[in-house]
Amino acid sequence: MADSILLNLDLPGIQKIRSGKVREIFDLGDALLFVASDRISAFDCVMPNGIPQKGEVLTQLSHFWFDQTESLVPNHRMVKADAVCDFPALAALPATTRTALAKRAMVVKKARPLAVECIVRGYLAGSGWKEYQKSQTVCGLALPAGLAESAALPEPIFTPSTKAATGHDENISFAAAAAILGADHARQVRDLSLKIYAFARDFARQRGIIIADTKFEFGLFDGQLLLIDEVLTPDSSRFWPASEYAPGKSQPSFDKQFVRDYLETLAWNKTPPAPALPDEVVARTRAKYLEAYERLTGKKL
């Protein structure tokens, strides 16, 4: 089972309502079932082959962080990690199917997602570094002169973006986010995002991982603001090994930056169809995901 790869999933008697880049979402009536596949995307394209156990890492890390942060912000989970397969709507599934779902599924409330992604950056990397080199700004926010690539920012910054149905998300100003969400919700998600990031950054640093940046999503359920989707995973964050951190260059990572770096070496125009990943890239990416999980949780998957 450890070497099997789940790319697609249908469940007998349960309606699939969406198939995203990574997640399959099913309707359980009063709840949703999120199942993380082993698909991997980069540059908004899904690779034709997957990463073994990736979906398990994403789901179990999200469960872990929901446990750690539920005193800071309520979330959309309806059951804890060890009780997913006991949820009544899943009881009729075959035992083998329930076993396969156990580590990669999450039962959640039907929250209405907010139309803005909440990105927090603590270090100068990726698109932020590219922008800084041109204008000494990141997402339009002015930063001090003389910062090196991968440098820690004076303080973490909130850089929201739109959610594009197709193509790339677009960075927007806080004022633009407030126009979309309303001023109160924009302030709330900004403050919560910075609070969660600060907590997770300090927690991870003690375990040898730098969280350079991350993306949060929020939703509304019965008027309450909830943390939803995945949280502080290698897909939604940039994780660096603290022991190898050296500003002034790109950093080694535990996330899918390893896949991005490989793809950057190809003569590929970053539009579908995406190229298949070589076995070596798959194996090393899997190892990165598993190591991130083990370092953060202190447990084997």
Uncertain runs: none
From the 3D structure, determine the CATH topology of the largest domain. D-amino Acid Aminotransferase, Chain A, domain 1
The domain count comes to 2
H/E topology pattern: EEEEEHHEEEHEEEEHHEEEHH
Strand content: 15-25%
What is the CATH domain class of the largest domain? Alpha Beta
The helix fraction, in percent, is 25-40%
Form type:
globular
Please give the alpha-carbon distance between the first and last residues: 13 Å
Number of strands: 15
Provide the gyration radius in Å. Answer: 19 Å
Mean pLDDT reading: 94
Q: For the record, what is the CATH homologous superfamily label of the largest domain?
A: ATP-grasp fold, B domain
Which structural class best describes the helix and strand composition?
alpha+beta
- Count, helices: 7
Major beta sheet, specifics?
A: 7 strands, antiparallel
CATH architecture of the largest domain: 2-Layer Sandwich
Describe this structure in words.
The protein has 301 residues and is α+β, with helices and mostly antiparallel strands. The protein has two domains: 15-108, Phosphorylase Kinase, domain 1; 112-270, D-amino Acid Aminotransferase, Chain A, domain 1 (2-Layer Sandwich). The chain is built from seven helices and 15 strands. Strands 7, 8, 11, 12, 13, 14 and 15 form a seven-stranded antiparallel sheet that branches. Strands 1-2-3-6 form a four-stranded antiparallel sheet. Strands 4-5 form a two-stranded antiparallel sheet. The chain is globular and about 60 Å long. It starts with 14 loop residues before the first strand and ends with a helix.
